[in-house]
Amino acid sequence: xxxxxxxxxxxxxxxxxxxxxxxxxxxxxxxxxxxxxxxxxxxxxxxxxxxxxxxxxxxxxxxxxxxxxxxxxxxxxxxxxxxxxxxxxxxxxxxxxxxxxxxxxxxxxxxxxxxxxxxxxxxxxxxxxxxxxxxxxxxxxxxxxxxxxxxxxxxxxxxxxxxxxxxxxxxxxxxxxxxxxxxxxxxxxxxxxxxxxxxxxxxxxxxxxxxxxxxxxxxxxxxxxxxxxxxxxxxxx
Length: 237
What we know:
By secondary structure, the chain is an all-alpha fold. It folds into 3 domains: about 10-55, no CATH class; about 60-135, no CATH class; about 150-235, no CATH class. It has helices at about 40-55, 60-80, 85-105, 110-125, 140-160, 170-185, 190-195, 200-225, 225-235, and strands spanning about 10, 20-25. It is elongated.
């Protein structure tokens, strides 16, 4: 065992940026640290060798990750639509990518089940995936939709003082949400409302009324299932 004395130096030049700051010699790390058998240079070398060994052992896992990431990243670029394409062009570009992924998903190797799940979910959302490119200002992501719903909850809380959403939101939520978003963007006058198609307005009220009747029937069933089923049986017999 060798005992060494390490002299810590400080810069004495007052104009230097490192004035009075301690600095050590470069050779210090090559000597064994207290309570250790090796110096920092040996420890750093062992760490680098273990890191390289880990990369070699997991090299086979990087190929499917690289392939899957390229596809998902390309899908994100198409849906971001920074070039400002219309809905038809975005749908056509995305359809081309989906077709290619379906044919080449075997290249993802161990991530092929994940790519298949991605394709399945994409097909289930396909019918409503491109409306946001047809209507300006329509929320595109879940975060944007949550903020839009938050506007409705904020208005209802200010008007009613209730923290819990009322039951009417289940029945008339489609109308209330559209009204909350539209009125936040534009102030409507009586002349604007007078231009609405009467037939469309009547159809909308009829749909809302049907939702309300369905809600009432559900409430009656929950309160007294036996009486509700008995009444329904009389109507059907």
